[in-house]
Amino acid sequence: MMKRLLALSVLSAAVATAGFASSASAMWTFSPAGPVTLSSPIDPGTGSPIPLQLFKGIPVSCNISGSGNIASGLASVTSLSLVPGSFFCFAISFAGLPYDLEPAGGVSLTSVTLKDVTVTAITGNCRGDLTGDFDQATGIITFNGATIPSDPPGGADCVVTGPVATSPAISYTIP
């Protein structure tokens, strides 16, 4: 009897945990479904891309290129690279993709977080979440001095400033 009660308790906990996990992933819905292109947006005044400003010991200005996907309402970034602008753009890369894209804190309609971003650079590595402002109308993410912690801890954080455009423009809802 005791073994059955223990088995039932374990099964109940597993079902409750599975239910919680599936409801957590359904707390927001990104759209439109399908592939997404990430890039430096074009400045309407100059017709030139607006680069990201990256800093980890030295300032670097680079355009960004990447791709992502939206499936079952969940968004992920599947590739990211920096297009030469400054000389050191070639020496910065992203590892550990894909990165999940979520509303900041799971509740914000005005900011998003790329989860567990890994940056490798000649001045050291960084790893952690990267949060930026999000414009629902344009699908543009803007980083305003957003930081990714140094990896290993103790070094300078990576600091990111500038916009990233999505095409098609993505948006999301939170019920």
From TrEMBL:
Residues 1-26 form the signal peptide. The keyword Signal applies. Keywords: Signal. It comes from the Bacteria. This is Protein activator of alkane oxidation PraB. It comes from Exilibacterium tricleocarpae.
